[in-house]
Write a structure and sequence with these properties.
globular, mainly beta
Length: about 150
């Protein structure tokens, strides 16, 4: 049997296939634009890093009611006062409110973009009374965030 150079053979191919299918998708998430989009509100589960700084939203779980189990890191963890997801048609949205750590009512209003696997929307900084456009990209967590 002939094989092309660089192609794994025998047990190597089997191991590569097993690792590809056994790797947990929540730990690293799909690469932007790769493969089919995750379905519904479950697409929000994961770690999301804001493009303009070291701000991270970690979404651990989505309840049937749309309530999110989530934390905010800047870089230290802060709890969200409210974290809620909704889905209307094909549009998945998430809204977060911060009260701790001097954020006093600051909010994120985000929409999931399945084509780029990003969260896009607005951040309202309540103390300064300013609104900013923001983008969050899915990150590999590998157990670093709690």
């Amino acid at each position: 049997m002939r094989r092309h150079p660089g192609t794994p053979a025998g047990p190597g191919l089997l191991l590569a296939c097993l690792l590809a299918f056994a790797a947990p998708s929540y730990a690293q998430g799909p690469a932007p634009g790769a493969g089919p989009a995750r379905a519904g509100l479950e697409a929000l589960v994961g770690a999301w890093k804001r493009s303009d700084g070291n701000y991270i939203i970690l979404i651990r779980d989505v309840a049937r009611t749309g309530e999110l189990t989530a934390s905010y890191f800047n870089p230290n963890p802060l709890p969200f006062a409210k974290a809620q997801a909704t889905q209307e048609g094909g549009s998945v949205r998430a809204a977060f409110e911060l009260q701790a750590g001097g954020y006093g009512g600051s909010t994120y209003t985000l929409r999931y973009d399945p084509a780029s696997d990003r969260l896009v929307g607005e951040y309202f900084q309540a103390v300064a009374k300013q609104t900013f456009e923001v983008v969050f990209s899915r990150q590999r967590t590998e157990g670093k965030l709690r």
